[in-house]
């Protein structure tokens, strides 16, 4: 079987690209970031700081302010009457900052332009060789894997990843001198429609952000609009096993390649082996052998993430040896099935999973790593709207645990509980109806009192909220 040293990727003739009619990102030296503590905002600010020399902004969390100040950034407390700097010429705000935030109101009164995180990222990508990673699951990991490959290959890329620190950066961002700009592209509020990439991955399509999309067709339409914005001379990478994503071929005006375990996929994993949940496999690009990758991050789903990253890096003209090397050196991301060590014989793990597909993947992977252990799971649902729409999907996804505790719903952006909305007790009852032992406790303090773990057990915290803090309470209790 021939082994490739370079990837010769053909370019197909397509329709002309729609003009952007939008200027590149303005100089941001005099910008002010409201809501700077968010991982995406930190990553974006890192890229702009590399270009313009400084970062200024505000953040509500005292712990986040302290961390950001260690980077040399000027970070104010998010106080009601904190004035904007007198030389501020642009306010960049995160999705978590409402329209009536005092500093945004001050910007309006002063006539200072305001720009969302997503729009700023889109304008930053203009004039660069943009690479975007979209999809319901795996965006952050694929972005970080690709960033690892590009950085190792000395492409000197810029990248923006919303999951926290990535190789070569203290945040999820990096400002490079090379032409490549890699960005995580989120479908929330249709933010990814601000991007006009030259190459993109869509890792799969499932309903998730119910405040934005009320039907799967609405979501598909939004993804179709996104892929139409890819450069006609560029590349779209799709999973071979997701029918919703495969339908995007019809909307794409560029070359399309697929990835997966299926022998018909353009990028596929063959001769797959596993040991304690960590996978090794050979990467094939059609009939060419790219090399054998041995992942340090566990889970079968990460094999698929690695294939997507390989395809994107191949478009970025990275040689095959460096693609394999980068994948082998990737050590994971914060809160993506992150090991927390062993305490009194109990194995601690934490994961950001907040969708049934992600929950099921995390628990299945832990079963591979600890096949003989009792698996105890503390799950914190993220948003009442998601919990209501996916109640029974969540209940089924938690069946792989031996004991489940459902913490109170983290109501991000939803305000106070309203009659008729689901509670943690409702989800716990649904989990129990499938035969999975489930604690009646729902506050972290009550769960801490009722949950008993023994040496050899696994304790995993799952969710996009502050459930990760439960490990601290657990270790302090014993």
Q: Can you put this structure into words, describing what you see?
A:
- There is one protein chain.
- Helix content is 31%, strand content 21%.
- With 478 residues, it is α/β, with parallel strands linked by helices.
- The protein has 3 domains: 31-119, 3-Layer(aba) Sandwich (Rossmann fold), CATH 3.40.50.720; 127-329, UDP-N-acetylmuramoyl-L-alanine:D-glutamate ligase, CATH 3.40.1190.10; 338-477, Mur ligase, C-terminal domain (Protein-Tyrosine Phosphatase, Chain A), CATH 3.90.190.
- The longest helix has 15 residues, at 301-315.
- The chain is globular, with a radius of gyration of 22 Å.
- The N and C termini lie far apart (56 Å).
- The relative contact order is 0.10.
Fold topology:
Elements: E1 31-34, H1 39-52, E2 56-59, H2 62-69, E3 74-77, E4 90-93, H3 102-110, E5 114-116, H4 117-125, E6 129-134, H5 139-152, E7 158-160, E8 173-174, E9 180-184, E10 199-202, H6 216-228, E11 235-239, H7 243-246, E12 255-260, E13 267-275, E14 278-285, E15 288-294, H8 301-315, H9 320-329, E16 338-343, E17 346-351, H10 356-369, E18 375-379, H11 384-389, H12 391-397, E19 403-406, H13 424-433, H14 444-450, E20 458-462, H15 470-477
Parallel strand pairs: 1-2, 1-4, 2-3, 4-5, 6-9, 6-10, 7-9, 10-11, 11-12, 12-13, 17-20, 18-19, 18-20
Antiparallel strand pairs: 7-8, 13-14, 14-15, 16-17
Helix pairs in contact: 5-8, 5-9, 8-9, 10-12, 12-13
